[in-house]
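Milestone 3.1: sequence recovery, worked example.
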């Protein structure tokens, strides 16, 4: 099972450090950004499986901005928004823009780990499906080539049989001559 590469974005150094430490201890590959601006720069340079971002951050790029950038850069990046000021409207807005999930602070790490496990399982299923699709395409291509080769061999053998019949039907030749000639076709 492939480990998830996660970017944690939060302007609060304590929250950022807590999430980093907990996820790193669970053997996720974790990087952090202290602002939306840093996150956007990092997302443009690196592919992340998951971005966990605070909703409200100073500096001009908030969690929605990070979400939009992550989705523009790679639709397969899953984004979990975290906020201390959760409202239904914020959650709906985030989901409409492609957020995978929405968590409230303080973060319940069991809930976060459960959601990451679901994301990881989904990504593994998608990879397995992709691998199967590729194997089916290779098998289909090989089958087509094999069938084409067999059809060519059958055509050549049929042509040979027609020639052999024609030689065997030649009455002006002795049976031994007909057999010898037919075997040379």
């Amino acid at each position: 099972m492939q480990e998830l590469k996660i970017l944690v974005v939060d302007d609060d150094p304590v929250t950022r450090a807590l999430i980093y430490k907990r996820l790193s201890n669970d053997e996720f590959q974790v990087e952090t950004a202290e602002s939306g601006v840093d996150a956007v720069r990092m997302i443009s340079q690196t592919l992340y499986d998951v971005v966990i971002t605070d909703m409200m951050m100073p500096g001009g790029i908030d969690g929605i901005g990070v979400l939009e950038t992550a989705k523009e850069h790679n639709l397969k990046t899953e984004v979990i928004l975290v906020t201390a000021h959760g409202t239904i409207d914020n959650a709906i807005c985030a989901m409409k823009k492609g957020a995978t999930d929405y968590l409230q602070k303080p973060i319940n790490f069991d809930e976060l780990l459960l959601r990451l496990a679901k994301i990881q399982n989904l990504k593994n299923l998608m990879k397995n499906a992709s691998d199967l699709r590729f194997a089916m395409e290779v098998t289909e291509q090989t089958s087509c080539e094999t069938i084409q080769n067999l059809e060519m061999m059958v055509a050549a053998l049929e042509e040979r049989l027609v020639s052999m019949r024609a030689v065997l039907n030649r009455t002006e030749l002795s049976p031994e001559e007909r057999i010898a000639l037919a075997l040379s076709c």
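The longest helix spans residues 109-168. The chain has two domains: 5-107, 136-183.
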